[in-house]
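Field reference: sequence -> structure
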Amino acid sequence: MHFKKNSFSPLRFLIAAMIAFLAVGVFPVGRVHAVPVFPAGFVSEAVVTNLTGPTTIAFTPDGHMFIGQKDGRVRVFQNGVLLPTDFINISSQVNN
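Structure field:
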């Protein structure tokens, strides 16, 4: 494939596309996130406290809540109490 001297090269296209994405705000750099609006009857309520960087939650059919933390620990919330013992701790394997 040959390009003429004034043609639009793939590199120029990539640079132009990146500039266009940044101009229209596709990348969330410095973007302020809106506060969610809940439907009638729903509320935002902290159920579990004293966590270190929670990143994910999974529920079991019997009501346990497993909470994955950024530090590599998985905590268990059961019967309204955050258990003192981790379900699993792989913090030595995680680059925080």
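Note: The mean pLDDT is 78.
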